[in-house]
Amino acid sequence: MAGGMGVRKNVHIEEWAGFRENCEHVFKFSKANWARLAVFGIAVPVGLYVWITKEMLSEGHSVGLGPERLGYQRKYMGFPPAEKKEEK
Amino acid sequence: MLNLEFLNPLILTSLTPLVGLLILFVIPATKESFCRLVALNTACITFLFSLILWIQFDSHTSLFQFSATFDWFPSANLYYTLGIDGISMFFILLTTLLTIICILVSWSSVKFLIKEYLICFLLLEFFLIQVFSVLDLLWFYIFFESVLIPMFLIVGIWGSRERKIRAAYQFFLYTLVGSLLMLIALLTIYFQVGSTDLQILWHYNFTEIKQIIFWLAFFSSFAVKIPMIPFHIWLPEAHAEAPTAGSVILAGILLKMGGYGFLRFSIPLFPEACIYFTPLIFTLSIIAILYASLTTLRQVDLKKIIAYSSVSHMGFVTIGIFSLNLHGIEGSILLMLSHGLVSSALFLCIGILYDRHKTRILKYYSGLMQVMPLFGIFFLFFTFANLGFPGTSSFIGELLVLIGAFQLNRILTFFASIGMILGAAYSIWLFNRISFGTLKTQYFSFFQDISRREFWILLPLTLLILWMGIYPISFLSEMHFSVLSLIEQLF
């Protein structure tokens, strides 16, 4: 592709971009960061999980229940249904 | 008697990259133009063979077509079986199309070790076609892992900055560690069932507890590949450091291997476990959509913006897959195909800017619409496709996924819809920052709109995105019976 149109780099932009890119170098386990981690890493996902599960159960969907318990019958993808090998 | 099995278009599609690769091996590395021509012609012939697959494909059956079985280790009941259905066919087509684009886009931007670079791409194409066509768990694993080798080299050798080595190792280690658990599960399955043939495994009923363990092992591999939060750290790094063609193939096809793995293995082999883990997947998907979208808004590197938006879109894909209904699964497949085109096109656009100005930092760019109008129009179209604008392929995919999700869980649909709004926010923000505003002439002296070659690279992607968005039935009808059979296996 076309060349010779390179950027005239700006020190401040480069430093700023480097800082934003390498945030792991300046990250500290401060109280505020622990709190953020607890909220966004644990509380929000757990809350969402509970909410989604409750909604699915209230709608009558099987959550954590095998479809076998709901009386399903396994069908085969176009192949003749061979004898099933039941696991002992 | 002549064995006509090799005239099977699937085998021809599989073997053509290998033939091209062998020809490249014997060409002296100094003949760079000839190497490029051989690689391009090989990729074009492979694409033509894959088109024959589509033309000859019978969409009225869910059976595997163009099947072929070869003895590999018969005494151990191990065979090499190939075949495609409506789910895998489009991934093969996407692979062959994007390989042509990757070779074209690297035509003049890759300056060193060109022969080796092209060999890596043809090898990658061969492995990817195998991943989407083998019907054997062991062979799937082998090719699934083999993809790492050429990709590791592409990122590590032809990447853009010093960080490329770190990115290559991160990519390699993440995916390898995830897949090791899958290998253990695979061996356990083999010793229990006595075969790794997919069609035999589908007839086998694993106990619920074993399904859960195997599902988790497979999940560890597929979740890294898709990638789902919190297994996504390798992706922005690998995207940012890879050359443009590497990013195209990463976003366009490699991410889809995880989704394909869920569809081909996790759902039919472990249906009870799939239902068991549905809330977990939904939670991780929503987290991926929301957190990745918000993270996208904070990025300063153009490639990382597209990389994080890919994580967000893949969240939609996993919601669709695990909604376990027709709309959801068809939507997720369509969304994967759409994302393969849209994100590839966006990476190409960023590659166009990087090739000219040698920087991907967002702060330098502004007002490009004034000096690169054609680029601006393409970029606007792909941005709209990325946010799921009606008439584009992403809209159909996301709509079907949301319809599928709504049948199962309204809260899930609500949060996924918020993700769509956030997607619009970061896409328009990105376009606005680059294309409008004052032209920053203090950083750039010269500008050049897209070249003829770049235009012809972007145009087919534009037309395909429109085709998929305006008339999706030509894609959905091909996969309909295969998806129905997949759902029938569950209930």
Automatic annotation (TrEMBL), chain A:
Q: Keywords on this record?
A: Membrane, Transmembrane, Transmembrane helix
The source's superkingdom equals: Eukaryota
Q: Which residues cross the membrane?
A: 34-52
Q: Which organism is it from?
A: Gracilariopsis chorda
Name of this protein: NADH dehydrogenase [ubiquinone] 1 beta subcomplex subunit 4
TrEMBL record, chain B:
Q: Which reaction does it catalyse?
A: a ubiquinone + NADH + 5 H(+)(in) = a ubiquinol + NAD(+) + 4 H(+)(out)
Q: Out of the domains of life, which is the source?
A: Eukaryota
Topology relative to the membrane? Multi-pass membrane protein
List, for all copies, the residue spans of the domain called NADH:quinone oxidoreductase/Mrp antiporter transmembrane.
136-420
Record keywords: Electron transport, Membrane, Mitochondrion, NAD, Respiratory chain, Transmembrane, Transmembrane helix, Transport, Ubiquinone
Record-level GO cellular component terms: mitochondrial membrane
Pfam families, per the entry:
Proton_antipo_M
Which locations, inside or outside the cell, does it occupy? Membrane; Mitochondrion membrane
Entry EC number(s): 7.1.1.2
Major location category of this protein = membrane
Q: Which GO terms describe its molecular function?
A: NADH dehydrogenase (ubiquinone) activity; NADH dehydrogenase activity; ubiquinone binding
* InterPro entries with a match to the protein in the record: NADH_Q_OxRdtase_chainM/4 (IPR010227), NADH_UbQ_OxRdtase (IPR003918), ND/Mrp_TM (IPR001750)
Residue stretches spanning the membrane: 6-27, 34-57, 77-105, 112-132, 138-159, 171-192, 212-235, 242-263, 275-294, 306-327, 333-354, 374-391, 411-434, 455-476
Q: Please provide the Gene Ontology terms (biological process) for this protein.
A: ATP synthesis coupled electron transport; electron transport coupled proton transport
* Role according to the record: Core subunit of the mitochondrial membrane respiratory chain NADH dehydrogenase (Complex I) that is believed to belong to the minimal assembly required for catalysis. Complex I functions in the transfer of electrons from NADH to the respiratory chain. The immediate electron acceptor for the enzyme is believed to be ubiquinone.
Provide the family line.
Belongs to the complex I subunit 4 family.
What is the recorded name of this protein? NADH-ubiquinone oxidoreductase chain 4
Which lineage do the record's taxonomy fields give for this organism?
Eukaryota, Rhodophyta, Florideophyceae, Rhodymeniophycidae, Gracilariales
- This protein's gene is called nad4
